[in-house]
Phospholipid-transporting ATPase IM (Frankliniella fusca), 473 residues
Amino acid sequence: MVVWKEITIESEYQRDVSPEEPESPAGYAIIVNGHSLVHALHPQLEKLFLDVCTQCRSVICCRVTPLQKAMVVEMLKKSRKAVTLAIGDGANDVSMIKAAHIGVGISGQEGMQAVLASDYSIAQFRFLERLLLVHGRWSYYRMCKFLRYFFYKNFAFTLCHFWFAFFCGFSAQTVFDPMFISVYNLFYTSLPVLALGIFDQDVSDRNSLAYPQLYTPGHRNLLFNKKEFMLSAIHGFFTSCVLFLVPYGTYHDAVDANGLVLSDHMLFGSVVATILVIVVTAQIALDTSYWTVFNHIMVWGSLLWYFILQYFYNYVIGGSYVGSLSKAMNEGNFWLTTVLTVTILMIPVLAWRFYFVDVFPTLSDRVRLKQRLAQLRSRQSQDVLRTPSARRTRRSIRSGYAFAHQEGFGRLITSGKIMRKLPRPNGDFLFPMAFASPSHAANASTRQAHCSSSNTSSPQDNGAAMTDSGINL
């Protein structure tokens, strides 16, 4: 059986932040058997059949052959230009699974043929929800972030040579050290973006299941398209412009404390390369939504690795730019240029993101804010439980003092039984021991009467007499 469901994504995307609601029963469904599907899939009727099916919420094809299942999937791929997913658990579903873009096999009682032919394997059909709404969505989110950052950092790196060409007479001279050009994408910027593509997530798995509308941007291809590519290219273009022109302006005709000229080509290239690595590292730190230990190691470790490798290459191997970066870092002009460049590049990014999150928040932004507030409340409640006053209130009931008890009743104090105050008919108050056994209470009442008579006959002993069942005042 083939189930084809058409989802209206515009209305779901505009829905407010609320947990999953039951679907409206409005709409139509079509059920087609194998004999009718033979005529519906005829080349002359295929388009008409598809137009009718797209008006329905669901289309169910039952009693169909494996070839017909594959033909339905191929029809959707060709006519609707849609990304298709096929799921099955038997050998008769293999052709359908192979025809779809994404094949999911269920390992069950009908063999392993569907699992072996699929891209993903699950044990039960109910796991499909988590596969799509959690892992599928995270995969799309991470891949889009990976691609946007990758284009950005390479535009920022490459266009620096374009700006330098106007100052070197278009002589094909590079602004960076040849070794830096070779290892920029290999050592300096590869591990942070790899950690971003593996571990990053905007919302937790629980919220991904609670708000299935978060899956809608993947349907609409909102996170990476031509517009997002152009924004990444423009961002890289602006970054390269600032990276080149700000150091060029600060080092133009600059001299050190001894009056020596600092504006040589090697020193300028080392300064621009260092600021470039710092800027792209800061940018991926801003892009990371979910920090783990591996993210910290790869992001900040790559920045540290740049300086270690520069020292090893220049002073151990004897590179062509030996001493340039060390000479630049000994001058205050380098640190001023670095802070100025990073500030100019990061402030617009932060302002842009704060503006859109505050004025035009997406569903993901609202869910992330709700998740963050829940984490803060949980952390505050844990901090309250750690205060000395809270620890005193949670002190064990076995701790305390006892007065006016007869010999042999110490075990009642250490038993942990709680006493509560009950009124008596004669106006006195009795503090009975809770959870006392019936036989123990009967013996206690007898001893209480005996103690009361003893107290009456002894005027000098007008204190409180404690029994097994309470204190008679």
Residues 7-18, 429-442, 444-473 have pLDDT under 50 and may be disordered. The first helix runs from residue 9 to 13. The chain is about 60% helix and 5% strand. The two ends are 81 Å apart (CA to CA).
